[in-house]
Amino acid sequence: MELSNRETWALIHGIIVGTVFILAFAGGLAGLWSLRWELVTAEGIRERLRRLQVGTWGMAAISWIAVMTGTYIVYPWYRATPPEGTTDLSDYPRSLLLSDPGTDLWHKFGMEWKEHIAFVVPILATAVAFIVTYYGPRLADRPLVRYTAMAAFTLAFAAAGIASVFGALITKVAPIL
C-alpha cells in the first residue's frame, strides 16, 4: 500500500497525533483524579505531580500540533477551489460536499466544527497544564480547582473527539487524495 503526500499528512494529523492525544488525556485525567491526600503520601503527591505536569503539557502541545497541522497543512487541500468549468470535483473535497444537497451538511456543520470549535481544544488543554503547574501540590488540597481542571480536560477531549469523528466521516465521503 502506498500513501500520497496528502494521505500521509492526514494520517499524521488524525491517527498518529490523535492517538497520542487520547493517551495523554487518559493519563492526565487519572492523574488529576488520584491527586488526593487520602490516596497517597506527600512523596506520592510529588511523584504523581511530576508525571501530571509532563502529561498535561504534553497533551497541550500535541493538541496544538493537531490543530496547526489540520489548519495549515491538511485544510488548505480540503478547501481548494476548482478551476472554472470543472465538472469532476473529486479532487476538491469542499466543493464536492457542497455540490450535493445530501452531503452539504458535512461541510456546513462538520467542517465548521473542525475549523472553529477545534481551536478550543488546545486552549483548554493549555489552561489545564497551567493550572497543574501553578497549583502544584496544592491541587491535592483544593478539590474544586482539581474538578474544574478535570472538567476543562474532559471538555477538550469531547470537542476533539467530535472533531475526530467529523474528520473521519468527511474523509470517507470526500477524501483528500
What does this structure look like?
The chain is mainly α. The chain has one domain. The protein is 75% helix and 0% strand. The chain has six helices and no strands. The protein has helices at residues 5-33, 42-78, 93-98, 104-116, 120-135, 143-173. Helix 1 (5-33) packs antiparallel against helix 6 and helix 4 packs antiparallel against helix 6. The chain is elongated. The two termini are 14 Å apart. The relative contact order is 0.16.
Q: Please state the average pLDDT score.
A: 90
Q: What's the alpha carbon Rg, rounded to whole Å?
A: 20 Å
Indicate how many domains the architecture comprises: 1
Assign a percent range to the helix content: over 70%
Q: Count every beta strand, where a strand is a DSSP E run of 2 or more residues.
A: 0
Structural class: mainly alpha
* Termini separation: 14 Å
Low-confidence stretches: none
Oligomer: single chain
- Secondary-structure element pattern, one letter each: HHHHHH
Number of helices: 6
The main pleated sheet reads as: none
Strand content: under 5%
**What general form does the structure show?**
elongated
